[in-house]
Amino acid sequence: MNTITNRRVAVGSALAMMTAASFGKNVAAQEASPASHEHGLGPYRQAPETAVVLTDTELIFPDAVPAGLNKVMFENQSSMDAHVLTFRLPDDVDMDVLWQAMADEEAPMPEFLRDQHFPGIPDYPAIGGGVNTGYITYMPGTYLAINLFGGQAPALFVVSGDPWGVPAPLADHEVGMVEMRFLGLDEPVDAGEQTWSLVNHGATWHEIMVIAMPELITPDELLEFFMSTESADDLIDAGYFQVGASGIMSPGVQIWLDFELKPGAYGALCFAPNDFSGPPHALEGMISTFEVV
Ligand SMILES: [Cu+2]
Predict the structure, then answer these.
(1) Ligand 1 centre and the CA of 164: distance in Å?
(2) Going by CATH, does the domain composed of 14-292 fall within 2.160.20.10?
(3) Cα–Cα dist 224/222, whole Å
(4) Percent of the chain with pLDDT over 70
(5) Domain edges within the chain
(6) How far is the CA of 207 from the centre of ligand 1 (A)?
(7) Which of 183, 220, 221, 253 is most buried, by CB atoms within 10 Å?
């Protein structure tokens, strides 16, 4: 597996690539590690903790992950952006074919990916030691996780056991995702440490990326700004930086993400590709702006 080079899976359009390239440098200058907390978890049964680490050479999951709800702490020890795609492999997957497909940057996205389970991850921890935390439910099976924006060796891990007994976290805020918009971001969000519930109510995969903005603008203005900004430095200089993300989530998937939100203006965007390999959903309207007060 060490010889495998990550392909930049077609999840990244030019727009997404630009975004990813831009935010890493900037978030490194932000608070590296928002405090994790235990909103609403019952005292009688805590979710098992699963530590995920990205280094400059590899993405590391525990070899064995318990089925069901896990508290996932994703640390980016590398010097590269962390934008991780996690999915459950089909039981009959041919690993040789898979590795070849993953290693070939020019190859089209493997069709089998359409039907796989994408559980999400507390994505985009800041370069140089940032940690993002969240709660992810893993069903039994074998999973592959790859960093879309680095050359690290991917992680292969097995989920086993009975997904039973861990109560769901209580959410401070609920956000839904459908085609092609976010639900629950129409009103201002309270500032502070908080846990968001994210549910994909749609029929296709979605993700959320939350960014802080220098001032409140409309979704159309935000999209126009992204489309007209040529360099990553322009975004950074303009005061846009990333505060958290979900990774790709399959239809029906619910995850919980911890945020520490300061008062200000924010945007939410989905960069999942339309119709599997098309333009990001943000271009189809899956983009919101909101205030944290
Ligand atoms: Cu979407």
Answers:
(1) 29
(2) no
(3) 5
(4) 84
(5) 14-292
(6) 6
(7) 253
